[in-house]
From TrEMBL:
Protein encoded by which gene: SEY1
Topology, Lumenal side: 708-710
Classification via SUPFAM superfamilies: P-loop containing nucleoside triphosphate hydrolases (SSF52540)
Topology of this chain in the membrane: Multi-pass membrane protein
Protein family: Belongs to the TRAFAC class dynamin-like GTPase superfamily. GB1/RHD3 GTPase family. RHD3 subfamily.
Protein name in UniProt: Root hair defective 3 GTP-binding protein
UniProt-listed GO biological process terms: endoplasmic reticulum membrane fusion
Phosphoprotein found in the keyword field: no
Chain residues that bind GTP: G67, S68, Q69, S70, T71, G72, K73, S74
GO cellular component: endoplasmic reticulum membrane
Basic and acidic residues bias: start-end ranges: 771-790
Ranges per topology, Cytoplasmic: 1-686, 732-790
Length: 790
């Protein structure tokens, strides 16, 4: 395609030089949109951008020229619009314009098309291009300039009436369906002399056109269609360019005003002529029309407009979506990673409104139905991108709120005197409020997205978490109560089991029942703050009772363990066998009934084994039994449930154990019996009384000697007085200690001496002798020591 530059006069004045050569100077450039080989340019869109027309929306106009070759069409366009189309060199008289050219009008948003002239010598009989180019001009422009010499008026072929007829006929099928598409046919009569008034020429041309219109073979549904329904006719005459140059210039200037000055009463670009194609779609639109013309199909302009609209709306939507996707992409990742994006709703709203306003701005000028249809599609795409973000945000919110709920609940429960129900309610309310607030923010108002389902799921999870927490807290509480219970029963049970009376079990069970009642009351008072259900309370109490019973049994087992129980039996036996009724130790005499006492004490003690062997209170009313609901209530402690059998738990000692204990006790008791018997024998084996008489008789003289000798007697008195003093002052112990120490010291000293004596028997004396006699001769002593060592 050929793009050239030419001179454009400032301020819209008409350029003077009309030659081809002169046209090729800097200024506005032109563009060949269809070449003489009937190819449509691929650069029209960029050329429109270059001309600054691409973004003018509907604020542009299109004008084209139709007429025989070399009738001054290019000259006319250049003068009227300030364009730079090629003009024929007057000396050569040959075709100048080939194909269709376009140029922007100077200082106006007008696309001016210079079309190859009809009836050209160069194309000869080939009328294909002129028909197609005429059709194309008519279909795409608002104003069609029909350029003809004055002397051509009234001629049929000379005035291109045959061609016009064909074009109008096809045109009717083009515009027949949309009668609001009007076109101005502006006849420009050149070399107007003035002999025949313009009005007459206009009438002749109007009559000719009307005649052609009437003779058209119209579609059946448009038989009544009138020429004026589709076309406005206008006429202008221009004097001879050379012979009446000044007048020509004046008229051309006037004619230009009709294209430029919107206030001019003859302003040609009426809104009804506009094809309503936005400027950025003109290139595509024209190319399509040319393709249709080329394919020799009937042109259906509305369809063309729809096609164009589809194409352009898709293009615009794609551009708008690209920007939108770029924005959305940045928030997709954090949401996929499970984060809650702050202000996501605001961002989505902004992206959506940006993509829509961008689409609306560029696409709303196209075919309305297509525009709205594509807008709906665009919205669906936008929503399909945003919806996963919304759902992801909800999921992440759900998780985050649940985490906060757990945290707040645990923190609340950590506080002293915290009320479980209050803590849970407060944390739950806060959790729901923050979820709903954030979910509402994320939801787009014009969407059908819902967050209520997610809220329900959150509520369910919150409930299960709080239930679990309550179960844990209840368990903790039961454990605490159980620990307290164990402490409380420990001492009283021990005391009662030590006493081993007939009412021992009554007492033990009494303590147990009393402590258990207190524990149950404590549980119930605490459970009120947990909002526990009756079933949960029943289950927890059953667990508590079982554990309490097991704790009691553990205590009983501890107190009836073999060594402990044997100790108790021994004590019991000793109390009865070795002490009398007043608790005074017995000293067995030969005539005491040791066997009787032994048997009695042993039998009484053996009875205890049977007493300890089963929890059997004396008073049946004190018997403890588990209630049915305690036995049947479900316990979450499966180990407890499996191992627990109340009836068997009443048995403390198995029969084997009883037999074993009895035999072991009997052995112990037998030992006591033997000891008692021995003590009787030793008292029998003491010094006989008559021996004392013998001693008195034999020692009589010595005793009298001491009593009647004043010295011995005084010594005896002194010894007795000293002994008495020592006793009175409590010095027996210290004196014994001192004596013992002295004796030990004496013994130690003696042992050391003996040791020294026997370890170095022959050396002591010679060494001592030499050291005395030869004390200054140290060298000799050292030598002797060395030799001794050797
Ligand atoms: N007599 C006369 N000659 C004119 C007029 N305007 C232009 N010419 C001359 O006519 C010749 C053809 O002018 P163009 O403007 O090239 O004509 P055209 O119709 O564009 O020619 P093609 O593009 O080849 O079809 C030139 O030599 C012009 O000087 C006019 O009003 N009267």
């Amino acid at each position: 395609m050929d793009v050239r530059a030419t001179a454009a006069q400032p301020n819209g004045s008409i350029p003077n030089g009309s030659t081809k050569h002169n046209a090729l100077v800097a200024g506005a450039d032109r563009h060949q949109i269809i070449d003489d080989q009937k190819n449509f340019t691929s650069e029209l869109a960029s050329q429109l951008k270059h001309w600054g027309l691409h973004d003018t929306g509907f604020d542009y106009d299109v004008v084209a020229v139709f007429g025989s070759q070399s009738t001054g069409k290019s000259t006319l366009l250049n003068r009227v619009f300030g364009t730079n189309f090629d003009v024929m060199d007057e000396t050569r008289r040959q075709q100048t314009t080939k194909g269709i050219w376009m140029c922007r009008g100077q200082d106006m948003n007008v696309m001016v098309m210079d079309v190859e002239g009809t009836d050209g010598r160069e194309r000869g009989e080939d009328q294909d291009f002129e028909r197609k180019s005429a059709l194309f001009s008519l279909a795409s422009s608002e104003v069609l300039l029909i350029n003809l010499w004055e002397h051509q008026v009234g001629l049929y072929q000379g005035a291109n009436m045959g061609l016009l007829k064909t074009v109008l006929e096809v045109n009717l099928s083009l515009f027949g369906k949309s009668s609001n598409q009007r076109t101005l046919l502006l006849f420009v009569i050149r070399d107007f002399i003035g002999t025949t008034p313009l009005a007459n020429l206009s009438a002749t041309l109007t009559a000719d056109i009307q005649r052609i219109w009437d003779s058209l073979s119209k579609p059946t549904d448009l038989q009544e269609a009138k020429l004026t329904d589709y076309f406005d006719l206008s006429f202008v005459a221009l004097p001879h360019k050379i012979l009446a140059a000044d007048k020509f210039e004046n008229e051309v200037r006037e004619l230009r005003k009709r294209f430029v000055d919107k206030t001019n009463e003859n302003y040609v670009f009426k809104p009804s002529y506009h094809k309503r194609i936005p400027a950025d779609g003109v290139a595509f639109y024209m190319e399509n029309i040319w393709e249709q013309v080329q394919a020799n199909k009937d042109l259906d302009l509305p369809t063309q407009q729809e096609l164009l609209a589809q194409f352009r709306c898709d293009e615009i939507a794609t551009v708008a979506l690209a920007e939108f996707n770029e924005q959305a992409k940045f928030q997709k990742r954090p949401i996929e990673l499970g984060r809650v994006v702050e202000g996501l709703g605001g961002m989505m709203r902004q992206w959506k409104s940006a993509v829509l306003s961008r689409y609306d701005r560029d696409a709303s000028r196209y075919h309305k139905d297509v525009y709205s249809r594509k807008r709906t599609d665009l919205l669906a795409v936008v929503d399909s991108v945003l919806s996963p973000l919304f759902l992801g945000q909800l999921k992440n919110l759900h998780k985050a709120c649940l985490v906060t709920f757990k945290k707040e609940m645990l923190e609340g429960l950590r506080g002293e005197n915290s009320n479980f129900a209050d803590v849970v309610t407060a944390a739950k309310d806060k959790c729901e409020v923050s979820f709903v607030t954030a979910a509402k923010e994320a939801r787009l108002e014009d969407s059908d997205w819902v967050w209520e389902d997610e809220l329900e799921l959150l509520r369910e999870e919150v409930k299960s978490v709080s239930d679990q927490c309550r179960a844990d807290e209840t368990k903790k509480m039961v454990n605490q109560i159980e620990r307290n219970f164990k402490k409380q029963i420990s001492d009283p049970v021990e005391v009662h089991l030590n006493v081993a009376s007939a009412r021992m079990w009554d007492e033990v069970l009494g303590v147990y029942r009393e402590t258990l009642d207190k524990s149950e009351a404590l549980y119930l008072s605490k459970a009120q703050t947990f909002n526990c259900t009756d079933e949960e309370n029943a289950s927890s109490l059953a667990t508590l009772r079982r554990r309490a019973w097991i704790a009691l049994r553990a205590k009983i087992d501890e107190q009836t363990a073999d060594p402990v129980l044997l100790g108790k039996l021994r004590t019991h036996f000793e109390e009865r066998f070795r002490y009398d009724e007043d608790g005074i130790p017995r000293v067995w005499k030969p005539d005491d009934d040791i066997d009787g006492a032994f048997k009695k004490a042993k039998d009484q003690t053996l009875e205890l084994i049977s007493l300890y062997s089963r929890i059997r209170p004396q008073d049946p009313e004190n018997a403890y039994e588990f209630s049915a609901d305690t036995l049947t209530a479900h316990s979450d402690d499966h180990q407890l449930e499996e191992e627990f059998d109340f009836e068997s738990s009443l048995t403390v000692l198995s029969e084997t154990k009883v037999l074993d204990l009895s035999s072991r006790f009997r052995k112990d008791a037998d030992a006591y019996y033997v000891e008692a018997k021995r003590s009787t024998v030793s008292s029998i084996a003491q010094i006989p009384t008559w021996m004392y008489g013998v001693l008195v008789v034999l020692g009589w003289n010595e005793a009298m000697a001491v009593l009647f000798n004043p010295l011995y007697f005084t010594a005896l008195l002194c010894a007795l007085a000293t002994g008495w003093m020592i006793l009175k002052l409590g010095l027996v112990g210290p004196l014994l200690q001192v004596s013992r120490t002295v004796a030990n010291e004496v013994q130690r000293q003696a042992t050391d001496r003996l040791h020294q004596h026997f370890s170095q028997p022959a050396m002591t004396q010679p060494i001592a002798a030499r050291s005395r006699n030869d004390s200054d001769d140290e060298g000799g002593l050292r030598e002797e020591l060395r030799q001794r060592r050797l």
